[in-house]
Amino acid sequence: MKKIDNKSRTSLNNLLKIIVWLLGSSVFLVIAAMFYFIGIFNSKTENAASKTFEKKPYKPEKPVWKLISMDAVVHEPDPELVKYGRELIANTAYYLGPKGKVAQQTNGMNCQNCHLDAGSRVWGNNYGAVASTYPKFRERSGSKESIVKRVNDCLERSLNGRGLDSNSREMRAMVSYIKFLGQLVPKDSIPNGTGIWKLKYLNRAADPTKGQIAYEQKCVSCHGLNGEGVKNTEGFGYTYPPLWGEHSYNIGAGLFRLSRLAGYIKTNMPYGVSYEKPQLSDEEAWDIAAYINSRPRPTKDLSKDWPKVSGKPIDHPFGPYSDNYSEEQHKFGPFKPIDDFKKAQKMK
Question: Is the pTM of this model over 0.85?
Answer without folding.
Answer: no
